[in-house]
């Protein structure tokens, strides 16, 4: 990289796409339902299961309703982007690949302090866990690195490497910006705030004040029922879609403050049961196709 | 004699697991290579490797072993089984001392052969607290992917592969290769010996000796601090953690933005330590200095300018978050947060934190009263008890649970609560651990005790007791907190009465076991202080004196007495009397009741009776007045009388009525000693 302007937000994404495309990944588009994290996309969760190799990279918009700050906090958003890579089986040089991708976006590991700091990752809502690290750059966590050991309560027969980049953080770092809304979005005068500030304000009101909790509860119950019915019928991804909807509805209810501490565990358990059923259905189909 | 060197090079090992893993490697090798007489063990650990070097014999020498078989004349089948097992015929056996014995001579085993057999097995079974699978199909697990195994005997590779039973174990094989710093010296180099490996690593920017890394961090941070006339807040745990994260420690100093310097020092420190692994620094006046120290992983090309700027920016974001909570939390009074505790479950069977706050408040008042505090202080204790848990609903405590109490204290002070109240809210969690201070301010003490009494009474009432290994509600720590707070402050309280108050009308469950639980913790505590726990058992004599201060004074007086010659002899006499009574009582006991003076036949009997008659009231008065040393002396003074009694008097006299009377006299002696303690519990 020459001494020109640092990468704008969209060029950062393009560089990562370019990098992972050259490494043989399928470059996929964001999944079309609300997700709390890139891991939850079926491109990761379902593909991590079973014996078939897989390599994909995609941007995933993530929604965390309770992280809304009405556009007033420079670091926290209820809607943000993750760049997600899944490599299955785990490549021998997983760590090196990640470091090379940092170089590709202009982070020189001899000028910056890159560290692999222990992180036992787990996501109880989808019954998943793995071992790996938070990857730090100059004291900031810029990626999560996980070797998946279990998903949907099922051990991964072929472990995969999951790399998740927090795109806004990374861009703030690369651009030297301290407020996310000041990020240069396109290199032609458009800021991140121009694109998202209004949405952050409106969604914060929605998440904390306006969302109809009675309706959300009804939707949660509907999604739960539908998910189980579809999993029973063996259509894994549609069943999993309903699980994702239930998970997002739970997050909204949680943000609205209508779920008590003791109820919380029970809701998480219900979503986990849906994830497990969908994962079981997926695996059953995979085994059929690999034997058939 | 040969140098055995083993290095296990992997992806980054969690900092907290490295030291233990290196220890395990050393002890497992020592055990597995027993026949090679392993010695001079040294172990190494760091972010990406654990290693061990030791001296072993060149071989396990030829030796003969005897295996004992069946007894002479045992069934044919048994003999057959034995010979089959060892692949010999009955003619190979000899008869020794009535048994068939096989004398085998074993060939020498070379160190190389023993190591190549033992190490793979050891690696497959390595006891990582948590390990993982990786790659396309091997079931070999390691803490993170294992990339290289170096194994050398005097510089020569010990050839072995990890593969077994059709599992290729990622193709891992022993080699003579190692790697230096990830960024500064990527790629492999050849190992010739342990010392060359250590030197070569240093030229390749890896300091593999933990003590050297610690030293670089400590002196480096201290030097940087010194340049600004400030000092680092000592934190050995953080030094160790950081040293497990870096291969080449480079301490650097960053500045804290002045705009954040009004945040509570604890908030800054916790945020720096927990989130960032930064060291906090202090001005000469003890206040937080506007700097932080951190440790980079390499000598940066630009001297660390860029990374320091980056770390400063990260910390600004962290502190901006903390400031958000600090400002927001102070908008709601702590007292107004109490109702919100009704939404926080304490335990499914023990209700909400709001109910608990009510109980702690009431109990804190009771404790304050028992401590003899005045009316205003009693009211303060009740107020502080009510507010003690309210900070659980604040954003800051949600973010940093370790700040509970501390934040409550700040917020209470901000709300204008009495100083004693805000202080008690902050201090009621003391002591947080073994090495932590106990509360000293009277109101804080009352709330600290009330918090723990309620915790213990609650969980004992529902029968949730700690098990051998598990103590999920930290009840042992709570009990110890009570004991330490009482001792440190010399509090004259009746714990038994306070337990009854804490039970709050509840009965049953395991509540009755609470005094024993405290007694047990007390025993453990005294033992850890090097006190004789049997002496405590003797003064406890089966039931806890609820006044721990009195109990401990009595224990220490007893402890002193039995170290004197009179005391030791008295103890021996008491045991002798107890033994005689135990045996004779079995025949026709018990022999209780007052002895009849007319049945005494010897002066020694009369002397003992008189001695006891004088000692009993003296002991009772001394005990009542808590002059324990006097009480001990009163009984120890009986020693010559007792010695003469046992020398001259035959207890089991031929005349039945004389014998019975003497047993009654001994029984009276035993009763007298039991005023002091149950001497039977004392060892030796």
UniProtKB/TrEMBL annotation, chain A:
Entry's Gene Ontology BP terms: glycyl-tRNA aminoacylation
In which domain of life is the source organism classified?
Bacteria
Q: Does the keyword Cytoplasm apply?
A: yes
Organism, by scientific name, is: Gluconobacter aidae
Q: What is this protein called?
A: Glycine--tRNA ligase alpha subunit
Q: What Pfam family does this protein match (any one)?
A: tRNA-synt_2e
One GO MF term, please? ATP binding
Gene3D superfamilies in the cross-refs:
Bira Bifunctional Protein, Domain 2, Class II aaRS and biotin synthetases, domain 2
The record's EC number reads: 6.1.1.14
Q: Which CDD domains match?
A: GlyRS_alpha_core
Keyword Nucleotide-binding annotated: yes
Cellular compartments per GO CC: cytosol
- Per the record, what are the reactions this protein catalyses? tRNA(Gly) + glycine + ATP = glycyl-tRNA(Gly) + AMP + diphosphate
UniProtKB/TrEMBL annotation, chain B:
Chief location bin: cytoplasm
Biological process, per Gene Ontology:
arginyl-tRNA aminoacylation; glycyl-tRNA aminoacylation
Q: Where does it localize?
A: Cytoplasm
Gene Ontology CC: cytosol
Note the superkingdom of the native organism: Bacteria
Boundaries of every DALR anticodon binding domain copy: 571-672
What are the UniProt keywords, alphabetically? Aminoacyl-tRNA synthetase, ATP-binding, Cytoplasm, Ligase, Nucleotide-binding, Protein biosynthesis
Q: Which GO terms describe its molecular function?
A: arginine-tRNA ligase activity; ATP binding; glycine-tRNA ligase activity
**Pfam families, per the entry:** DALR_1, tRNA_synt_2f
State the reactions this protein catalyses.
tRNA(Gly) + glycine + ATP = glycyl-tRNA(Gly) + AMP + diphosphate
InterPro entries for the chain = DALR_anticod-bd (IPR008909), Gly-tRNA-synth_bsu (IPR015944), Gly-tRNA-synth_heterodimer (IPR006194)
Known EC number(s)?
Answer: 6.1.1.14
Under which main EC class is this enzyme filed?
ligase
Subunit (UniProt): Tetramer of two alpha and two beta subunits.
Q: Which family does it belong to?
A: Belongs to the class-II aminoacyl-tRNA synthetase family.
Q: What is this protein called?
A: Glycine--tRNA ligase beta subunit
Lineage, uppermost ranks: Bacteria, Pseudomonadati, Pseudomonadota, Alphaproteobacteria, Acetobacterales
